[in-house]
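Lab notebook, bench 4. We co-purified these components, and the gel suggests they stay together. Before we commit to crystallization screens, I want a quick structural picture of the whole thing.
Request: model the full complex, all chains together.
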Amino acid sequence: MTPQEMKAELKSLGALVEGRLATVFGDGATPVRLTESMEYSLMAGGKRLRPVLCLAWAELVGASAGAVLDFACAIECIHTYSLIHDDLPAMDDDDLRRGKPSNHKQFDEATAILAGDGLLTEAFTLASGLALSPDRVLKAIFHLSTAAGPRGMVGGQVLDMGLTGKSASLPQLRQMHAMKTGALIESSCVTGCILGGGTGGDLALASEYGRAVGLAFQVTDDILDVVGDTAALGKPAGSDEAQGKSTYPALLGIEKSRELARQSVDQALAALAGFDHPRADFLRAVAEYILDRTH
Amino acid sequence: MTPQEMKAELKSLGALVEGRLATVFGDGATPVRLTESMEYSLMAGGKRLRPVLCLAWAELVGASAGAVLDFACAIECIHTYSLIHDDLPAMDDDDLRRGKPSNHKQFDEATAILAGDGLLTEAFTLASGLALSPDRVLKAIFHLSTAAGPRGMVGGQVLDMGLTGKSASLPQLRQMHAMKTGALIESSCVTGCILGGGTGGDLALASEYGRAVGLAFQVTDDILDVVGDTAALGKPAGSDEAQGKSTYPALLGIEKSRELARQSVDQALAALAGFDHPRADFLRAVAEYILDRTH
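Here is the predicted assembly.
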């Protein structure tokens, strides 16, 4: 699969996700201001990487994208809530997100806190409403909530706060990222695989692919922050270092960071080696694409 | 059942809940500061009314308390997160909660936001880990997340913010409370009933009981705020009015508010009329107890 074909496929699956996200609060059962605030961030674009990974892994092991779409949307709700809360004045205090005012700037702080809370909770309504084998859905919810919660993303955010302004060691940096961003990316792959009916072996490979892609993604983000490809990240070059955050290039240098990203992508490709399926080609191309962003 | 017997039973079921809550983060998989912050609020006492209602309704229709304990604890995690976020400076800006510094005062604002996020997410790990029929568990998770989310508690909090400083109408006040506090109390009863294997008829009665008890609880809270029984609420008398919040006594007067509370309790008792079971006696005594707080 060429990068162009992959991008077209990514766009098409992303559009499927966005189409469903746009209807989630369409029943009029939520207060207008809350709906506006949640949809402001939910519909603000982005590549929808996490839900697309969920859909692709589900299809790879035999499900249809439509059957797991609401679960994929649940993952995007969780990702979006985490961005809203991360931007709050008490956290990263970011006024901008993807070139637009962050949620608390567009609305107000209380509304932004509640929009985040609302999206996080709604994720589990979407997930538990899935019309698939209850066994699989329950197992996927358990995996997702563990990855997003105190043992995963939320815990990683606390570790990140603890490291800010200090020089972290490489193991500390890796553990923090594995929890803060890696866990949700991994869970996107694993839950797709669970919902699609993957075997225990499939789940282990989905986990390996997801962890490797998550690490590659973080390392290349750090590299882009240094080399200053602002368009790719939507934030000013050097902003992480300016905020006193440790990065892979700061710890390893640019070249060794590039090597680490390359190794991670190779690991992701290795996890897919046994799959002969169009979705495996797509997932391989996604992994390569992450790396290509730094060239 | 005498009020004394009911209180002993409430204490005993509450102790069961607290015993389990104390072990939730005992696996060492969560960062120390986050664990401390979550447990600071989770173990701060309270009557554990919501999880106890869940346990009692499950037992009433035939399950054991032990089988649904983790789900009951999930409900208490959600209730606790809502208190932490409500107290934040951008929300009610409360420095004290049950006579102790509120979470953001004891720790800091970022940690309090994340402790709330962590408890909310952990609730769904606890709920989805339940070793009961996956069908029932999934249905209960759907009910709970709907009640706690933008269509319920979170939406009610947004409505409350919109009403602060304005004079609300009675229908506005009732809708706001039905979402902000009523939905989670109702869901505690209904999810217990779902998990216990209740029939469709049982679920309707659990819902009716829960909604009536939730309303009675809110009205008597408002009355206590006016008549100044500070010990019962753990906050200064008149604090709701001082914050510019509409109350039932302000809209209806004390006597009509007492009548409304009495009617609600009668409705709760009517929902239980068909049950001949020790747990029905307990649930009747709980409903009566809510009312007795105002005398």
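Chain A has one domain: 3-292. Worth comparing against the SEC data before the next meeting. Chain A is about 75% helix and 0% strand.
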